[in-house]
Amino acid sequence: MLVTRRNLVAAGGLGAFAIAVAGTAGAAAPADAPASGAAPVAPNLNAPSAASAGTIQKANIQLVKDFCKAWGDDPPDAEDMTNKYLADDCVVRFGDTIEPVTGHDAAIALFQTFLSNGERYDLKILETFSRGPVVVNSRIDSTIKGKRVTNPTRVVGVFLVRDGKIKEWSDYV
Known about the structure:
By secondary structure, this protein is α+β, with helices and mostly antiparallel strands.
């Protein structure tokens, strides 16, 4: 077909007409109606909005930051940290070669093995990000005994947060 000014004007006119007709037809349909003409889909009122998802992620990050900070309390309290920050059915793993422990009692016992000799820990967070319920931080963990800080170790912590508590925590060195 030869493209002429007349063909372009006619095509433009038909295009404008098609847009006008589509706009008129679309105005009568509900906003949530699928384009296929099928029945409208009800919005999921339980799905978090983008704003609330961001708020939840920020709260999850703050929970993990507070938990990491609690390791430096003088003295740190294993039972208090577990009750305050961890879910009842939590899973804790201090390294990929260490078997995980499950539940509050096991987590308290594990924490006490690190805290029983009067040591506490400085978990210096270098970077944190969150995607949905998962919070990941890059840290340098150091042992504090009295005023002496020793054994700085680079660590990546992966936390799964559910209902405002840490459900799973794994550290990787």
